[in-house]
Amino acid sequence: MKLAVIGLGAMGYQMCSWLNNDFTVTGYDIATEKMEMAAKDGITTASSAQEAVKDTDIVLVAVRNSAQLNDLLYGEGGIASAMRAGSCLLLTSTIGIEAVENVAAQLKTDGIGLIDAPVSGGPARAGKGDLLVVVGAVEKDYNFAKPVLDAMASTLVWVGKTPGKGQAMKTVNQLLCGVHIAAAGEALALAGQLELDQEVV
């Protein structure tokens, strides 16, 4: 299976490096230093995003927001026109439910599947295939990408059969994270009021 990884930031680079152990991977980033680092680490690189995705089965994308994703797909030099029909975009970013649903509908007209797979766990775990990955995708696309998803994740959950459901589950996850961070802060404040050593607590 041939993969392209677009976006070699903190998470993307680690995922790319890990997947390069088991798959034929081409990496691309607009930052020259990221490309140089990838080449030094034995990752095949491309001169453009379009070149990176040519003849690939799955394009893993790690971007910051929906504007970056839309520009990557449909802006100048966009990759949607260079991806082959029957391939899939594996989106690991958290960009929102509506944004993913809209992109999925656009890609469908080009015969390209969208696997909505936001990740949690941080760069260190990404570099060991130890991520939590929640997926929203039609069954055909999910099964097609499952070898890659299995390689990325220590916990993989298919939460819904349409793109956008991964984003929905990530929203639930982020709510829980926020609640627990706030609760931990209140608990430490209480510990201080009770004259406990907060570092020990």
Summarize the structure in short.
The chain contains eight helices and nine strands.
Textual characterization of the structure:
This protein is an alpha/beta fold. 46% of the residues lie in helices and 20% in strands. It is built from eight helices and nine strands. β4, α4 and β5 form a beta-alpha-beta unit. It is globular and about 65 Å long.
- SS strand fraction: 15-25%
Largest sheet: 6 strands, parallel
Mean pLDDT: 97
Series of H and E elements: EHEHEHEHEHEEHEHEH
- Poorly predicted regions are none
Instruction: Kindly report how far apart the N and C termini lie.
Output: 49 Å
Estimated radius of gyration: 19 Å
Tally of helical runs: 8
Envelope shape: globular
Sheet with most strands: strand arrangement: 3-2-1-4-5-6
Helix content: 40-55%
Structural class estimated from helices and strands: alpha/beta
Find the count of extended strands (DSSP E, 2+ residues). 9
Keywords:
single chain, about 200 residues, alpha/beta, six-stranded parallel sheet, three-stranded mixed sheet, 8 helices, 9 strands, about 45% helix
Give a topology summary.
Blueprint: E1 2-6, H1 10-19, E2 24-28, H2 32-40, E3 44-45, H3 49-53, E4 58-61, H4 66-74, E5 88-91, H5 97-109, E6 113-116, E7 119-120, H6 123-126, E8 131-136, H7 139-152, E9 153-160, H8 165-193
Parallel strand pairs: 1-2, 1-4, 2-3, 4-5, 5-6, 8-9
Antiparallel strand pairs: 7-8
